[in-house]
Amino acid sequence: MTEAEAREGAAAMLADAGVVLTPAERDAIEVVDFGLGRLEEVGLQIVVYVNTKRVCAKELVLFPHQTCPEHRHPPVDGNPGKEETFRCRRGIVHLHVGDEEIVLHPGEQRTIPPDTLHWFQAGEEGAIVSEFSTRSRDAADVLTDPQIVR
Fold this sequence. Notes:
It is built from 2 helices and 9 strands; from the N terminus they run H-H-E-E-E-E-E-E-E-E-E. With 150 residues, it is mainly β. The chain is globular.
């Protein structure tokens, strides 16, 4: 799958779920393959609505069985690290926080404390997850797999 195909697929999933994007948001959908080149297996598509010094709001789009790999959001510049709440909008999300697996269905949510190892995977139909968090600093994320780059 090419980056353009992933962007189009994510936009289509969002439109099907009733999420309206501006043309600029649609064009700016970030396609993340974590440097592995296996996007259909490991990766996700992201729409960032806002990311300020205090808050962040995003849509995370995952294709069927697509996985966002294990990572954590460590303290940065005296701040405790990103705290995030995932709210499942469509599909099923298998969220792994430490040793716990939480299955999120549409309308369910979970808050992940700063500096906590977690990863997540979409179910058979893919998933859309709204993320509400403190400031996002993707470059500061610590990923468990040393082959992964962000």
